[in-house]
Design brief:
heterodimer, A: mainly alpha, Potassium Channel Kv1.1, Chain A, three-stranded mixed beta sheet, B: mainly beta, Neuraminidase, eight-stranded mixed beta sheet, five-stranded antiparallel beta sheet, 5 helices, 26 strands
């Protein structure tokens, strides 16, 4: 009897990453992933969910983020202390390699975690705002597909912005 | 994973890219148009400009107060959170580029509206992209009085300029409105003759422009508030509350995102009123609160500032006063003496209107007065 109540109290989900690693998470963490919350609400959630777009390295980070946010919000501390705590955590959490940041941002979009998406977008924006065109192309892995004439024209349009 | 390998394999989707870009300052975006054709197309699209504007509006660190001055042809940007002057805001504020005598009308969604003191032209201008458009008004300031208002028609998403004009010898007031979408003027019928205080409207709030006006002469004169609805293009006249006789003792301001009237009654105590019932013919005024100012009547209301005032202190400093928090901040101007002649909120944007042209660049770096501030 007692073991069955425990089971209903602490519902767990198994999340499988792109590279096949399985993570066990509690419901309070899983619901922060909007995609999973929708599955739960629609009663379509199976205990085993495959996430095809997220590698285990990134998924581990995402779960760490959601766990901390779930714990802080339900911890019974006052709202201002919780806010401060989350701010400190978020700042430290963003202190990662920028390629990981890009993948985290994409994962937050795919898994629909609004606060993490906002946080990563904001961090990336402040990282790149003063970078050169060449640095930005390299970072986002985009190719310069302008013709020589086109590139000249687009640079001339707002030449003062490069000064 | 090897960082180099990771880079080769990983691409950010277009949607995510758009979200990151929408959080960048305008000057970065103008540069990043040169990254690739996809980025150029994203940054140039009107839908991106709207998204970027939404992000800028919701981010208070992107806001500024532009203080206009009487002696210099400059707008001086201040941080609305601390009231300290911005030192590195990338906007081009030199009004002198447009002519010798320029009046500042207003600022909406990153677009500024200015007009020549002759009334012959108005100009819409985005100081962040340095693009502008000059429009002839067909009005001659020598033979006509005029007053200009600026607004955003929220329904049609159109930017409009309203000019109230009144020929000196004929006692009939006319109103014409220019639409950025149609790039043309339209005359609006008004049945009443009235006179206005100054060459620019008193307040602009959410799709409306307001003027404090009066009709009749001497003891028969009656003070009214003229409101122009940018969407319906209708001008309405509402009598001001009680017995206020002097238009110079009435100020338009913004209170809780609504037009409010600050009225002095021969004392230094000011009554603030808002229009309660906004349906035509049934307008009633409601008394909100009073405030007392020890600096007399020489203050300016900051447009879109939600009860924020600005005044000059003995031509040496500026004082910002917040009616909501009753906090006051003095900004001393040591070197460059100037008097403020008003202030407007500004949010930078990529917004552009049909026919925008590049400003002939004055490549000299904008000189900014050295300002120190104290509480």
């Amino acid at each position: 009897m007692s073991s069955s109540t425990e089971l209903t109290e602490k519902k767990v989900f198994l999340l499988k990453s792109l590279d096949g690693v399985i993570f066990e998470v509690e419901e309070s963490v899983a619901v922060q992933l909007e995609v999973i919350r929708e599955l739960i609400e629609g009663d379509c959630a199976r205990p085993f969910i495959s996430l095809y777009n997220v590698t285990s390295e990134i998924l581990a980070l995402v779960i760490e983020y959601c766990k901390h946010h779930a714990e802080t919000c339900s911890g019974g501390t006052s709202a201002t202390i919780a806010d401060e705590d989350l701010k400190t955590f978020d700042n430290e959490f963003m202190n990662v390699d920028e390629n990981i940041l890009l993948e985290l941002c994409s994962a937050a979009d795919y898994l629909d975690i609004k606060s993490l998406f906002e946080l990563t977008c904001r961090t990336l924006a402040s990282l790149i705002k003063d970078r050169t065109i060449i640095e930005v192309r390299k970072m986002f892995n985009v190719e310069n597909d302008f013709s020589v004439v086109e590139e000249k024209a687009v640079r001339k349009e707002f030449a003062w912005a490069f000064k | 994973m090897d960082p180099e390998k990771r880079k080769e394999e990983f691409y950010v989707s277009k949607d995510v890219m758009v979200d990151i870009l929408s959080r960048l300052p305008v000057i970065s975006l103008l540069r990043f148009k040169s990254v690739c054709t996809q980025w150029r197309d994203i940054i140039s699209s009107p839908s991106f400009a709207s998204l970027h504007l939404k992000c800028s509006i919701s981010n208070p660190t992107r806001h500024s107060i532009l203080v206009r001055t009487n002696s210099k042809k400059m707008l001086i940007p201040f941080d609305p959170l601390t009231y300290s002057p911005f030192s590195n805001l990338d906007i081009y504020c030199n009004l002198g580029s447009f002519g010798q005598r320029v009046l500042f009308v207003g600022s909406i969604n990153g677009l500024l509206c200015i007009c020549g003191s002759s009334g012959r032209w108005i100009c819409l201008w985005n100081p962040s992209t340095r693009l502008f458009k000059k429009i002839e008004t067909g009005i001659n300031g020598r033979s006509s009085g005029f007053s200009v208002g600026f607004g955003h028609d929220l329904i049609a998403n159109d930017y409009k300029v309203v000019v109230i004009h009144r020929r000196r010898r004929v006692t009939r007031t006319g109103v014409k409105v220019w639409s950025a979408n149609f790039e043309s003027w339209r005359e609006i019928k008004v049945d009443c003759d009235f006179t206005f205080k100054q060459c620019v409207c008193d307040t602009m709030v959410k799709g409306f422009a307001y003027w404090i006006v009066w009709n009749g002469l001497g003891s028969n004169s009656k003070i009214l508030v003229a409101s122009f609805d940018m969407s319906t293009e209708v001008l309405r006249l509402v009598p001001v509350p009680q017995d206020y006789y002097h238009p110079d003792r009435l100020y338009g301001l913004i209170w809780k995102e609504k037009f409010a009237l600050a009225a002095f009654d021969r004392t230094k105590i000011c009554q603030v009123w808002t229009i309660e019932n906004d349906s035509v013919g049934k307008e009633s005024w409601s008394k909100k609160f009073t405030f007392k100012l020890d600096f007399g009547f020489n203050f300016y209301t900051i447009d879109a500032g939600n009860g924020k005032l600005l005044y000059n202190r003995e031509s040496r400093g500026l004082v910002f006063y917040d009616l909501e928090t009753t906090k006051m901040k003095t900004v001393e101007i040591r070197k460059n003496n100037y008097l403020a002649s008003g202030a407007h909120y500004y949010v930078e944007s990529l917004l552009s209107i049909k026919g925008f042209k590049r400003l002939r660049e004055n490549t000299k770096k904008m000189k900014r007065p050295t300002i120190s501030h104290t509480f």
